[in-house]
Amino acid sequence: MPERVVTTLEVRWGECDPAGIVYHPSYVDWFSIARMHFLKENGIHYMADFHDGGVTVVVTDVSCHYRKALRAEDIAHVSARLVELGRTRLVFRYEVTNERGDLCAWGETRHAFVDRDTLRPVNLAKFASGLWERLAQLPISPLDEGER
Amino acid sequence: MPERVVTTLEVRWGECDPAGIVYHPSYVDWFSIARMHFLKENGIHYMADFHDGGVTVVVTDVSCHYRKALRAEDIAHVSARLVELGRTRLVFRYEVTNERGDLCAWGETRHAFVDRDTLRPVNLAKFASGLWERLAQLPISPLDEGER
Amino acid sequence: MPERVVTTLEVRWGECDPAGIVYHPSYVDWFSIARMHFLKENGIHYMADFHDGGVTVVVTDVSCHYRKALRAEDIAHVSARLVELGRTRLVFRYEVTNERGDLCAWGETRHAFVDRDTLRPVNLAKFASGLWERLAQLPISPLDEGER
Amino acid sequence: MPERVVTTLEVRWGECDPAGIVYHPSYVDWFSIARMHFLKENGIHYMADFHDGGVTVVVTDVSCHYRKALRAEDIAHVSARLVELGRTRLVFRYEVTNERGDLCAWGETRHAFVDRDTLRPVNLAKFASGLWERLAQLPISPLDEGER
Fold it and tell me: How many domains is chain D built from?
């Protein structure tokens, strides 16, 4: 069970804007991709396990800090790790680096579990206990001092 | 019941690409917006009448022809009209013009009605007869010779 | 010169995800639209004044907090105001409300001015003094205690 | 020099719509990705060779035909091949298949070469002769009868 899962993407032309660089909301989309890969590498398939099981993992908060621009055809490595896990929420951290290893952006997403039908928050341990038991085994890498 | 419904959009920064112009798939997205407005202006609300009613109107074919580029903050007028209507399908035509009235793009979408749960094609008159009756009253503007 | 500019959007089908609600990065895109409208209502046209003038206003940080979901065809009012302004940076705040006035999301973007060709940070007062003089007259609404 | 280049993509959550399937304009975006990969596998880098060289390859026409839906986390194989090549234009064909090899969609894009600064059509052999010479060596796979 890897603590950090790295997704490698090639920047798409359509992800860039008239400034010639990646349009900033695209990084927030990349966080979704990296988060789903983190789960998959740890044995949880978002579509089969959450979506089809009636649970939506909504985003309650997102932040992203941009340090270096990327452009079309550049390689981006997006690493994701889980920093908090509870019956009602998840917190992930992400780092985007370029091919040379320079930090291009970093960010965080906070999540709640909601009933897919009503969009109401649920306690996952009660709502889908089997899924919760699997989730509870995910590796957590808490933030250290400098990362807060 | 208007035969042609025009939706006016202001080009978004995020709809443009590194060439500084609207990224071409954005026009296909605009067709969706224009189509939903056409329906709404004719009394049919896509979300309430189709989606919540268990019918998905999928796109089976799309084409778009580009004549003049648009860039961020430009105004685009997207006109939509229905050119064919049947129990199993719909065909729409679109024209995009700029503020001066120049034709920037035109295109067509063809659609099938599918059961939202199974994604299988349905005969709307059987599957949702009330909705079909309302749809059957939509104004149709068949293509003339030069438009084929 | 309005301190707060409200942009009214109709949620697009393509802005929503399989959970049936607006995909969260779309709000970050809406912030861009609202910010450009804030500037325009205050006499500054992003494309003509910044982009064509060789200045790119990059985003250095973004945050968004989600409170209530929106879905396709819903109306969203996105208000934008400028909370900090300097020769090297800008800070904007946004609030998204639905048709009933409920707060759906709020967020912040922080920006730097960069040379469009080199992407290097510039002091706008030196790099484009005429533009800076106009910008310096924008109405600022600093955050109050509860908003930090 | 491969005649057909296949790009394998994992469907992104953000590429799907409230019907739970890939939003149809996303396929048009995939065609761009597949086209750039076709060029790259044949030794031409779009950003370095075209964009930075002052040539934009605009899309003049696009069509896409949808046969089978895909959803998030599905694998899509997008094959691209060049079917026409001239001093003023290019035509590409694409096929999208799922993991089992079923045809999900197919389409075509037609392109013109334009001067990046003026957006005016150019004869590539005159405008950028070195690039044209390299392009002229690309493998062409003309359409056969049944594909027209």
Answer: 1
